[in-house]
UniProtKB/TrEMBL annotation:
The protein's name in its UniProt record: GDNF/GAS1 domain-containing protein
Subcellular location: Cell membrane
Membrane topology recorded in Swiss-Prot or TrEMBL: Lipid-anchor; GPI-anchor
SMART domains: GDNF
GO MF annotation terms: glial cell-derived neurotrophic factor receptor activity
Lineage of origin: Eukaryota, Metazoa, Chordata, Craniata, Vertebrata
Source organism (scientific name): Otolemur garnettii (Small-eared galago)
């Protein structure tokens, strides 16, 4: 008898590409960006504008299990990581002859509504928080991955910086920053050393923590209405210049806790559920850390009405019994 050979784990990124070709929607939109992103023109490598537009359509319209499968696949060797890095055809969509300054690139991004709003989404939804379980302030990998992929196809298109890590960055550096060097490095650091984003990519790639990212994905992943509406429409952009600030967000009163309870199957404490009046009164439009112990300790007023009703009913019953006895 001959020894059975142990087959090593395959190339997940290659498997994801094959799976894409078996899905009509994925195959259609992948072909739609491969063509303009690889076709050379007389003056340049490709038509970058058409390439970017097709990439945006791919990530807006293809189900996450396929688009993310190709972009966030887990790898064990260079052949796999290089295929992952090549997903967006970086020679056209990402790389240029020279690297602009990151703050100049950010200024360019701010002149375009799509880029400006998606960059704001990225800063909001991929904000790291070392004290949280997921390393994300919002504890939501899905929102972070959605915000990151939303930048692909804009002037702020990010990609893996090499084939040996999960570090990503836009095509820019901090040369010629002058007095703004610290601000520039802070901006670049948010991409390259973002533990929230790295954990989100790893969690998707190896399926180790699906409970954190999966619930936020649309129930019917065959349509793009949810993701496009989330990205493009009714996005509060904040005051001019605020996009570079790393924003903090408060939990919506009551509704968010109920949603968290549904997602995690953990019973939420009603004492954390603030009424709209408390929400406004305590000025909780800033960071979630501003929620005071006083407002958290006070039970919601909505829980008092049924109790009061029971007390009144009990008293009226006792009174009617005592009257019946006396008569």
């Amino acid at each position: 008898p001959f020894a059975v050979e142990h087959i090593p784990k395959g190339n997940n990124c290659l498997d994801a590409a094959k799976a894409c070709n078996l899905d009509d929607t994925c195959k259609k939109y992948r072909s739609a960006y491969i063509t303009p992103c690889t076709a050379s023109t007389s003056n340049d490598v490709c038509n970058r504008r058409k390439c970017h537009k097709a990439l945006r359509q791919f990530f807006d319209k293809v189900p996450a299990k396929h688009s993310y499968g190709m972009l966030f696949c887990s790898c064990r060797d260079i052949a796999c990581t290089e295929r992952r890095r090549q997903t967006i055809v970086p020679v056209c969509s990402y790389e240029e002859k020279e690297k602009p300054n990151c703050l100049n690139l950010q200024d360019s991004c701010k002149t375009n509504y799509i880029c400006r709003s998606r960059l704001a989404d990225f800063f909001t939804n991929c904000q790291p928080e070392s004290r949280s379980v997921s390393s994300c302030l919002k504890e939501n990998y899905a929102d972070c991955l959605l915000a990151y992929s939303g930048l692909i196809g804009t002037v702020m298109t990010p990609n893996y910086v090499d084939a040996s890590s999960l570090s990503v960055a836009p095509w820019c550096d901090c040369n010629n920053s002058g007095n703004d060097l610290e601000e520039c490095l802070k901006f670049l650091h948010f991409f390259k050393d973002n533990t929230c984003l790295k954990n989100a990519i790893q969690a998707f790639g190896n399926g180790s923590d699906v409970t954190v990212w999966q619930p936020a994905l649309p129930a019917q992943t065959t349509t793009a209405t949810t993701t496009t509406a989330f990205r493009g429409k009714n996005q509060p952009l904040g005051p001019a210049g605020s996009e570079n600030e790393i924003p903090t967000h408060v939990l919506p009163p009551c509704a968010n806790l109920q949603a968290q309870k549904l997602k995690s199957n953990v019973s939420g404490s009603p004492h954390l559920c603030l009424s709209e009046r408390d929400y406004e009164k305590n000025g909780l439009s800033g960071a979630s850390s501003h929620i005071t112990t006083k407002s958290m300790a006070a039970p919601p007023s909505c829980g008092l009405s049924p109790l009061l009703g029971l007390v009144v009913t009990a008293l009226s019953t006792l009174l009617s019994l005592s009257l019946a006895e006396t008569s």
